Amino acid sequence: MQNRIIKYILFSMLLWGLYLTPTSNVPSGIHQESILLSDHSMNDTTVSQCSCQCSYCTDMDSVTRSKQEQDQKEDMDETMRSRTGQKSWTILVYMAADNGLRRFAIRNIQEMAKIGSNEHFNLLVHLDIINGNEKISEFYYIEKNNVVQINVYPEDILPMDSGNPQTLLEFCKHGLTGFPAKHYLLILWNHGTGTINPRYGRFINPSLLFSYNPLTHKLDLDRSVGYLDLVAEEIGNFRGICWDDSTGNYLSNEMLAKALKTICKRYLGGKKFDIIGFDACLMAMTEVYGLLKGCGDIVIGSQEVELGTGWNYALLLMKLMQSVPSPEEFAQHIVVSYYKAYQSITNDYTLSAIRLSALDQIENHIHRVATILKDSLSNSGTAETMSSIIRKSRDPRTCTHFDEPSYIDLYHFYDNLEKNIDQAKISIPSNLYAGLKECLQERQSLFRSLIIAHTSGKNLTHSHGISIYFPFNKIHTSYQSNDFFKTNAWGNFLMQYLYA
Predict the structure, then answer these.
(1) What is each CA distance from 299 to 108, 292, 330, 469, in whole angstroms?
(2) Region 61-82: what's the mean pLDDT?
(3) CA angle, 189 as apex, 184 and 192 as ends, to 5°?
(4) How far is C-alpha 233 from the geometric centre of its chain's CA atoms?
């Protein structure tokens, strides 16, 4: 017990120390503000303790508690559940911070506590983080100006591995059964690499990809080196999502989907999450979202890399201060809050909210377009012309791509493809032109059904909310093993275009 008390005192010092020093090298005046808790910090006990003269500190030493208070911890589950009851929303944030994002995890928790749980919603956090040389895995209930640690995890599974699906299941078990609500939002907080399931290794801080531009007074994203290439260059390997530095494990997209399906079956009675959010880089992809169709109604993510600061949780939670939004209203608000957080900081950002119920139609449309393209490439009479049209349509100078250049905006690619077949109409057989033209013109209605909300910076004005994998030279080995590649004609099209 004494060691646990000392551990949380050290973690409290970490929590405050990070905000007494600069969190980045951004010049003065460029988004350096921090949203702070009051004077409360995390402790070994069931409620936060501070060094000020608040009610938690009165007649209480900052290092020890009485034996009676320590004995009360075993009743914390029941106390918190009776205190919360069923609310309109329960928000679960799975923070995999045993890595270079540690300081941003603390910042985001401070943002959350600026608002805190209220009569409308519960705010829960699972945190994996390194404190000195020791790993901490904890379950927190976030109140206004107060971070409450709840001892729900058995001692024999601590510390936990955020790259192990069982850790996500354990968090959701306690969060969903202990804090029932009408609606549920699950946020996966970490690095991300989109559809590529990488090899073992550490990761880089995405903030290192941005540099200050003194002309615009904003942060510019360096696209001279691809994101996954940079990771491979820096560390020799790259990752998926929710990776853990201590173990080297991570959740592949398939592992994540399997875990979420299990959670929905066991703890949601077969229902889905109302919203699944990725506070991570590059996850807004057709191939990733296709795996989640049975797990959620709405998914929110970024096509581009995110700055280390990620989502601004104070702005995000404001919607729940005095009202109860529907899932689509809340999803729209989350996208708007991202715009408010970044539009004055960088021109390189995206965030979109998507209806997963509409994704089948998008996948079927991709299959039809890819089939037409593949067949045209297989025909000696049309192969050369269509190869040139595809190359122009996918050209990085004209087609929106992201810091990982093999990830392109699906809608913009369709736009370019229609424009280029129009220009080459006389060189294309009429039946091929008519079939492809008709198919491409369906995109507008399809995307209206798909996209709930979307925002992007000035450098990404032609992004439309969802990406697809289209490499320049070769297909990554992990992509060839995913379900989309195996079942959708897009995979056959890429093979024909790149290797035939």
Answers:
(1) 20, 8, 12, 19
(2) 41
(3) 125
(4) 24
Does 62 score more than 50 pLDDT? no
* pLDDT tens digits, 137-162: 999 999 999 999 999 999 999 999 99
- Pairing relation of β-strands 40-41 and 49-50? antiparallel
- pLDDT, tens digit (0-9, with 9 covering 90-100), for 357-382: 999 999 999 999 999 999 999 999 99
Q: What is the mean pLDDT of residues 234-247?
A: 58
Burial of 477 (0-12, 13-18, 19+ CB in 10 A): exposed
Strand-strand pairing, 296-301 and 350-355? antiparallel
| Lowest-pLDDT choice from 48-57, 452-461, 477-486 | 48-57
Torsion angles phi and psi, residue 206, rounded to 5: -60, -20
Helix axes 253-267, 165-178, angle to 10 degrees: 30
Longest dimension (CA), the chain: 87
Let me know: does 482 contact 288? Beta carbons within 8 Å.
no
Report CA 149 to chain centroid distance, whole Å: 24
Q: Do residues 428 and 385 make contact, with C-beta atoms less than 8 angstroms apart?
A: yes
CA atoms within 13 A on the CB side of 291: 20
Task: Find where tokens 């090899």 sit.
Answer: 199
At residue 478, the pLDDT reads: 86
pLDDT > 90 in the chain, percent: 66
* Sequential DSSP letters for 167-181: HHHHHHHHHHHHS-E
DSSP-assigned letter for residue 294: T
* Count of residues in the chain: 500
Segments making up each domain of the chain, as ranges: 84-357, 359-499
Q: How far apart are CA 455 and CA 466, in angstroms?
A: 12
Collapsing DSSP to helix, strand or coil, 453 comes out as: strand
Going by DSSP bridges, is the β-strand pair 87-97/181-189 parallel, antiparallel, or unpaired? parallel
Tokens of 170: 């354990």
The residue type found at 10 is L
281-332 per-position pLDDT tens digit: 999 999 999 999 999 999 999 999 999 899 999 999 999 998 899 999 999 9
Strand partners, 137: 128
Residue 221, helix vs strand vs coil: strand
Q: Where would I find the H helices in 18-127?
A: 67-71, 76-84, 102-115
Judge whether 140 and 150 are in contact, CB under 8 Å. Answer: yes
CA-based nearest residue to 362, from 261, 434, 421, 289: 289
Q: Around 231, how many Cα atoms within 13 Å sit in the side-chain half-sphere?
A: 23
CATH architecture of 84-357: 3-Layer(aba) Sandwich (3.40)
